[in-house]
Write a structure and sequence with these properties.
Elements (H helix, E strand, L loop, with lengths): L1 E7 L6 H12 L1 E5 L26 E2 L12 H17 L3 E5 L3 H9 L11 H13 L1 H11 L1 H6 L5 H14 L16 E9 L2 H17 L2 H10 L14 H8 L5 H23 L5 E5 L6 H15 L1
Parallel strand pairs: 1-4, 1-5, 2-3, 2-4, 5-6
Helix pairs in contact: 1-12, 2-3, 4-5, 4-7, 5-7, 8-11, 9-10, 10-11
Length: 309
């Protein structure tokens, strides 16, 4: 089994800088666990660290998919496994860093996943249901075969509702019967660390970061993606900033409203991330403000790593 370090926390908490500082101290290399940073050309909105910010530390799982690729968590786990195995083989320390809890738990805890089909006939049929009968009718179909998933998914989230129906169509089993931890196939020995800070401080930090991203070209990046023809229905284009600016491009609201929604939704996303990670008792939490910043956080993680080893 391969020892790995896992650094989690809400967006804007300092994970990227802390992980680089830690990697420099332990001879580590970084594997991203961010569901948006996988996409090529989507750099500013996803807070992808620049080459200068990486300080020469190798990073993996950036820019591995086009925005219109059907990239799944299974694809992520396969690529991350290969990167971690290579890092470990060369005597380096794999450091998994990110805020996509589903990616991290799928990788570390080896969740089981339902199959996917390359035949789009069923999905097209369900889209016809949406167009002719409405979202609620589609949701009612899911409730009839998989009430647990129906309770979790909003009727307006037609993409995921169709996916859940597809799983039942392919396997005869509800989607809720999958995504279970596979204890028999554990391949990693993880040390978990989480970064956090006072909620109001984080929210102020996130607002400032949005304006910094705008100054760095966030709007132009979103407009370039829109002009390239990437549909707002794509998973990649549902990311924060791309989604709001796409609505602006369609004339649904003003530029200022788009910016305000980006700030609001970034804060909400940070809250959801902390809610996801907080119950995990494996995580050693560090208040990045109280400890004195990312460099001190890296030192604290390094010290705890040695104590936990």
């Amino acid at each position: 089994m391969i020892p790995v370090v896992v650094i989690v926390g809400p967006t804007g908490s300092g994970k990227s800088d802390t992980s680089v500082e830690l990697a420099l101290r332990v001879g580590g290399e970084i594997v991203s666990a961010d569901s948006m940073q996988i996409y090529r050309g989507m750099d500013i909105a996803t807070a992808k660290p620049t080459m200068a910010e990486r300080l020469g530390v190798p990073h993996y799982l950036f820019d591995v998919a086009n925005p219109d690729d059907d990239f799944t968590v299974t694809d992520y786990v396969e690529l991350a496994d290969a990167a971690i195995a290579d890092i470990h083989r060369r005597g380096k320390v794999p450091i998994i860093v990110g805020g996509t809890g589903f990616y991290i738990h799928s990788l570390i805890d080896r969740y089981t996943f339902p199959p996917r089909s390359d035949n789009y006939d069923f999905r097209d049929e369900m889209k016809v249901v949406v167009d002719t009968e409405g979202n609620e009718a589609l949701h009612d179909r899911l409730r009839a075969v998989d009430p647990e998933s129906a309770a979790r998914l909003h009727s307006n989230d037609t993409f995921r509702v169709i996916r859940a129906l597809e799983v039942y169509h392919l396997t005869g089993n509800p989607l809720s019967s999958y995504n279970q931890k596979d204890n028999a196939n554990q391949i990693y020995i993880p040390q978990f660390f989480g970064l956090k800070m006072d909620k109001d401080l984080l929210y102020n930090r996130l607002e400032k970061r949005v304006y910094s991203m705008l100054a760095a070209g966030l709007f132009m990046e979103a407009r370039r993606m829109h002009a390239a023809g990437y549909s707002h229905d794509l998973t990649s284009m549902k990311g924060i900033a791309y989604r709001q600016f796409c609505s602006y491009f369609r004339g649904e609201y003003s530029f200022q409203t788009a910016v305000e929604l980006i700030i609001r939704d970034t804060r909400r996303y940070a809250k959801r991330q902390f809610t996801w990670f907080n119950p995990d008792e494996r995580i050693n939490w560090i208040d990045i403000i109280n400890c004195g910043g990312t460099e001190n956080a890296a030192i604290e993680i390094y010290t705890k790593m040695m104590n936990l080893a």
